[in-house]
Task: structure prediction
Amino acid sequence: MARMRIRRAFVASIRLGLIYLACLCVSPAAHSADSADETYLNALQGHWEMVGAVGKKPVRYRADGHRVLQGGFLNLHMIDTGSPAEYEADLFIGFDRKAHDYIAHWLDRFGAAGARVVAQGTRTGERLVITFPYADGPLRDTFTWQPATKSWSLLLESQASNGTWSTFASYTLTHRDH
Result:
């Protein structure tokens, strides 16, 4: 009887050791990929001056990026600097560790109709491309992080029925003082 308990304890300790080794082998790679994707999103945190054009109209926004929902999403709140503001939006971007892609929700002053669509995207290096599959044609947001200048570019494009993409808006985001 004592021998059986010793054998069970020995087998259990070997199993635990193997599980521990498996975790060591798998975890660092998975953790570093997740960390890189989360670090990428974290670079959008802070206070930004967002300057660009919608169509040919010059625009200027204040943007503030911060983590929300226990860190599950990066929220980028944008509001134009006009008085009164003509445009305001919240963009929520999160990284799905299981699917290894990004999910985004764009909510703006135009209401619920535009918020029905959830975007999906992938990142290659410093560029994140997110596509919103709207019924009247996809919209594509391309975020590009420029670490040397600690700034971002954001390009919004719409796809025509013939498949061609055209610029809807483009912005540069640079840090601003509070």
Q: What stands out?
A: Residues 43-175 form a domain with the Lipocalin fold (CATH 2.40.128.20). Confidence is low (pLDDT under 50) at residues 2-33. The beta strands are 46-54, 57-68, 73-80, 88-96, 101-108, 119-124, 127-132, 139-146, 151-159, 165-175.
